[in-house]
Amino acid sequence: MEDKFKKFNETKQKSEKSIILGGILLVVGVILALLLGSNMEALLVVGIIVVLAGFVFLAIGATKFFKLKKTFKTDVLTERFKELIPGITYSPNRGLTEGDVYSTDFLKRADRFHSEDFLSGELDGVTFASSDVKLEERHVQHTKNGTRVYYVAYFVGRVFRFDFNKEFVGSLQVLEAGSPKSRGYNKVKLESIDFNKKFKTYATEDITAFYILTPDIMEAIFKLEKKHPGRIGLSFRGDHLYVAINNNKDTFELQLFRKIDDNMIKEFEQDLLVIKDFIMTLKLNNNLFKK
Amino acid sequence: MFLALGTGAIVGIIIGALLLIIVIWYIGVMNSLRQLELKVQEAESGIDVALTKRFDMLSKMLQTTKGYAKHEVETLEKVVKWRSGVPKDATLKDKEEFFNQMNQVASGINVVVEKYPDLKANTVFLELQSAVANTEEHLQAARRLYNANVTRINSVIVTFPQSIVANAIKMVKKPYFEAEEAKREDVKFEF
Fold it and tell me: Which pLDDT value is given to residue B53?
């Protein structure tokens, strides 16, 4: 593994050098063209050439780094994930479908949808799937110079889907922010004042909220919320539990100017084991209520 | 327009408007109390259903342990009058008693299971044990929903000025469905 890391780090350093060089050339080129080029035409031309060279180096560096990220995921992470959760499927280039994501019933339909880093498998008898998800809303701005279209991300994080072990009537949502997208939900107040302060609970049937959210499970949701920063939402629908964490984080990604080492791998492993954490803390592996 | 009216007329209009506001508020509070009361009644009938279901499940479970759990069979037979469901005239106290008796039976069965390990190997018994645990979860949910609704209506009944409306329509504080904590813990099945 050390040899692999060394090789990856070498390639990474090369792409980083290219990006740094590109950046320096860009800055120098702009200075030459704008500050000195106004007096001397020759310097203006040199400035433009330097800027172009800067772009070329930046593009080369970025492309190399992008390729490296992909190779790292397929060569290193897939293998490591399989060791941690046997039978797991890891597909870095695809993610949960729009259908899966909107099945949460609390995430707004996006104008631009992107998902990646798909994970699926079975852990302690519980089938799961998860992926990184980015949802963006289209904005149009009318100015004197024309119309500007831009996209604003309102969800960047992870969405999980688990098999749920209790049979229940209707649907239930426990949300830190937002509200259900479908009609027919009532706001439910549970006995815990702290829980009601932190989360809004919506259910199509009041009894379902009390059946699923036992005191143990409410405590578990509290623990999970503390452990995983970001806005968390849970949706119990049909045979599934959907969890979405809006934490503005892109998981399993290499970072520029950060060495690939055991610490980084451990962080990726922790991100993977969030799945296990949810299954164990919410006792989804308890078969007592399954028919 | 007001200038054309005399002082007496203006005072009359103000009093009339105030009275109208009070009447609307009174009707609003009365309706919300009635709705809350309905929710409490619905939740109580949810307890009835869960109690009956739990009784049925425990009866079935006892049939598989007949030879082992004689005492529990006798206890359950004492409350056999509930077999066809919770009687309409049953008070909340009766239901609490019924609930606690069933918990005694369930914990008794647990003790029996510990004494006779071959029962643990009986798949029918295990399935029933799982079903009983599920009915217990449903019963707890029904109990918690009922108590949550009672808390809501009681807080309205005791809060001024809504308490005036509650007194006027003779609505009194609703009792909670209490469960004996120690006995409830006994019912937890360990696998």
Answer: 83
Print burial letters for B104-139: b (CB count within 10 Å at least 16), e (below 16). bbbbbbbebbeeeeebeeeeebeebbbbbbbbbbbb
Hey, of A206, A216, A285, A286, which one would you mutate to test binding to chain B, going by the most B CBs within 10 A of its CB? Answer: A206
User: Is B148 in contact with A191 (Cβ distance < 8 A)?
Assistant: yes
Give the confidence band of B187 by pLDDT, cuts at 50, 70, 90.
very low
Angle between helices B92-115 and B123-158 (to 10 degrees): 150
Respond yes or no on whether ipTM tops 0.90: no
**CATH class of the domain at B40-158+173-186:** mainly alpha
- pLDDT > 90: what percent of chain A? 62
pTM to 2 decimals? 0.82
- Residue B130 belongs to what H/E stretch? helix B123-158
CA distances from A77 to A69, A84, A117 (A): 10, 10, 11
Please tell me if residue A210 touches chain B, with a CB cutoff of 8 Å.
yes
| CB proximity B142 to A under 8 Å | yes
